[in-house]
Amino acid sequence: xxxxxxxxxxxxxxxxxxxxxxxxxxxxxxxxxxxxxxxxxxxxxxxxxxxxxxxxxxxxxxxxxxxxxxxxxxxxxxxxxxxxxxxxxxxxxxxxxxxxxxxxxxxxxxxxxxxxxxxxxxxxxxxxxxxxxxxxxxxxxxxxxxxxxxxxxxxxxxxxxxxxxxxxxxxxxxxxxxxxxxxxxxxxxxxxxxxxxxxxxxxxxxxxxxxxxxxxxxxxxxxxxxxxxxxxxxxxxxxxxxxxxxxxxxxxxxxxxxxxxxxxxxxxxxxxxxxxxxxxxxxxxxxxxxxxxxxxxxxxxxxxxxxxxxxxxxxxxxxxxxxxxxxxxxxxxxxxxxxxxxxxxxxxxxxxxxxxxxxxxxxxxxxxxxxxxxxxxxxxxxxxxxxxxxxxxxxxxxxxxxxxxxxxxxxxxxxxxxxxxxxxxxxxxxxxxxxxxxxxxxxxxxxxxxxxxxxxxxxxxxxxxxxxxxxxxxxxxxx
Length: 479
Description:
The protein has three domains: 4-105 and 125-181; 230-325, Signal transduction histidine kinase, dimerisation/phosphotransfer (DHp) domain (Helix Hairpins), CATH 1.10.287; 328-479, 2-Layer Sandwich (Heat Shock Protein 90). The chain starts with a helix and ends in a 7-residue tail after the last strand. The strands form three sheets. Strands 1, 2, 3, 4, 5, 6 and 7 form a seven-stranded antiparallel sheet that branches. Strands 9-11-12-14-13 form a five-stranded mixed sheet. Strands 8-10 form a two-stranded antiparallel ribbon. It is built from seven helices and 14 strands. It is rod-shaped, with a radius of gyration of 52 Å. The chain is α+β, with helices and mostly antiparallel strands. Helix 4 packs parallel to helix 7 (440-450), helix 5 packs across helix 6 (367-384) and helix 6 runs antiparallel to helix 7 (440-450).
């Protein structure tokens, strides 16, 4: 069952089958209960009629027991049969299987007083009555005039005027109940398969129609995979359901993937361009030195080698960041880190001025990566400053702020986001005399983001650039 349509149709059919079976069983039970109660009511009415006749003093022979549809059996306190219906041949379910009266003599009537009753002792005569308690109901069988059938029996007690307690068992046929239940059961068994076939067919068609856009999305994705053309997009249905959202999300993913691939291609092209110049320069110097040792520019070769080393380190760090490498969780004191970085820059053209505020200045992260961020910001400030570079570190609410300002020309507002792109330099210069490869600020922003912080650029009071690094205090990281 690899098809979603088949699984959906089978699942829906099974659910409907279970629901219909449960509902059908409940209907049959309720129907049988209602019809059985109706038969019991008929049996009770007949039993009370006979009991009423006995209570009024009718003899056994005077009882109206000619109704073949409602067999009657009357027993005394000892369970002996004293009266039965005319054509009753066999009975079960009443507690007594007898159908022949043990005493053919009729019960004494109200006018048949013995002589012993002439000596009245003054006490009240016995009182005849029919029990008002709910009758006992049982199911059994009875054979009337050669035909055996199932009956619902009701047992009603009656006390005669002679203080004799009798039990009247009257039955009502269950044939109508059985016929109705059988008819309903047959109809259900006949209609259930048809209903299940309809449910399976409708579910199959509806699922097929609902999944048709998914097949279109799959085909388009297969074509994109085969052609490697990330500019293509999957069709988006007009509906607003989950499939439409899936198509939109897929297209958004393709857009991000296309942008990522384009960015990677540009990165490789720019990296190749950046590497070509120092490698070509270094090769030229080495070839000249090999042919004419006196002309070897050793300092220039060392400079190109250092530049290649720095560029390779930057590219390796960017590759690790793009791969999703998470920084460590070491406690780093940004104040001490900034002082240490500044103290190592003794050969800089401009000595940075450092201002570190009191308070908690520790953040959680990689000391090496954060040192790279501070160093890149200082390199950028020195490259563009005219006379001064300032660095300040302070805590502000749940963050630690590191600000690096210079008195250079600043960054135009339209270019403030672009300068954080890789291999971007506002003057588009490519010679080694004009600075780095345009990776320092991109690395700084990526590292800040990996640490849960931000790196922005604005305008300093002196008109130069002001770079602001914000890092959350431990336990305050953004989710």
